[in-house]
Amino acid sequence: MDRTFVMVKPDGFARGLVGRIVARFEEKGFKLVDAKVIQLTRQHAEHHYEHLRQKAFFGELVDFIVSGPVFAMIWEGKDAVKNARALIGATNPSEALSGTIRGDFATDVASNIIHGSDSDESAEREIKLFFR
Ligand code: DAT
Ligand code: MG
pTM to 2 decimals? Predict the structure, then answer.
């Protein structure tokens, strides 16, 4: 079975959305493999988002992701990466459809409450980075 890495970001965690987000993945048919609350260090955050280092928003993104605890998860299911991204919705919540997590719970791209791996390779890399 395929696996993907998903993380409720500090805004989603602070707003008490972890339970509802977990429920959506369970309802979809995913199986929870592992999960934990973690406060990221700057170094960990910069490593996680290193492919975005050249972007103008990189500093803001790292500040945001270390601003409070996150809830990191490994989910298992068929086409896990693709199905999880479909549940999560478009990067910019203003473009995310209703019924998706970002479409229903967020308005701002800089605080879009959830992360999901974008390929099998990044899922493997991110699972190692967060769960060893
Ligand atoms: P995704 O999280 O949908 O995979 P991404 O990998 O391109 O999107 O970007 C990672 C995160 O960076 C994204 O969830 C929110 C932030 N981000 C992306 N574009 C941004 C922008 N134009 N301004 C501020 N933050 C942005
Ligand atoms: Mg991404």
Answer: 0.98
